[in-house]
Design goal:
Blueprint: E1 3-7, E2 17-19, E3 39-42, E4 48-51, E5 63-64, H1 68-72, H2 81-92, E6 102-111, E7 117-125, E8 131-142, E9 147-156, H3 158-161, E10 168-176, H4 178-186, E11 192-203
């Protein structure tokens, strides 16, 4: 994985988006600020509902998992700067995630070896089953219609990411342009928009 540029775990953006597993295919939007700010959720039926429930409660402590391709390459949490930073952030908030759901957490910006940049996300599994081969379409930007990604199809295949176990999180990265980075830096808990649609996954038996 790639070199960490900066940590914003205590800064303006603490965001989660969840996707219900009732039919193993749904879309929803759930911005969640660290201080339990109120947010709007798009339930996929053209309606919005409000929630300010913190993703805590009786959940087990969250654990960080390595991507399969990183583990196969000999990467560990201890010998990799990004995994170390993520592990520290998770240990500081072990109840991160949405109860009984799959969620996304935009964590930070990273610098790649060639000088380009990516957004680092955490995929969090709070479902009761291990999951794999996760796919969904993501729109991420602000409520004024300026998007970093719009209906971007994401695939987390088992051969690269492995199996995401219950109460676990795994990182992934998406490249950004300088213009997209500027938009990311302008996001706040009040103007951020994150939506996930067409969610599919396989359940590991």
């Amino acid at each position: 994985m790639k070199k960490l540029l900066m940590l914003i775990t205590v800064a303006l953006l603490f965001l989660l988006i969840a996707c219900s597993n009732d039919s193993k295919e749904s879309e929803s939007e759930q911005p969640l600020e660290k201080r339990e700010a109120q947010s709007n959720i798009d339930n996929g039926n053209g309606k919005e509902q409000n929630t300010n429930e913190h993703a805590g409660g009786q959940m087990n402590d969250l654990k960080l998992e390595l991507q399969k391709q990183d583990k196969d390459a000999g990467v560990t949490i201890e010998n990799n700067e990004i995994y170390t930073a993520l592990d520290e952030a998770i240990k500081a908030d072990t109840k991160m995630g949405v109860p009984s759901d799959f969620s996304l957490y935009p964590f930070d910006i990273t610098v790649n070896p060639d000088g380009s940049k990516s957004i680092l996300f955490l995929a969090i599994n709070r479902l009761k089953d291990p999951i794999k081969n996760i796919t969904f379409d993501m729109t991420f930007g602000n409520k004024e219609g300026e998007y970093i990604y719009e209906n971007k199809k994401l695939v987390l295949p088992e051969d690269e990411f492995g199996i995401l176990h219950p109460d676990s999180a795994i990182p992934f990265m998406l490249d950004i342009t300088p213009e997209q980075e500027q938009l990311f830096n302008r996001l706040t808990k009040d103007n951020v928009h994150l939506e996930m649609a067409n969610f599919k996954m396989d359940v590991e038996e």
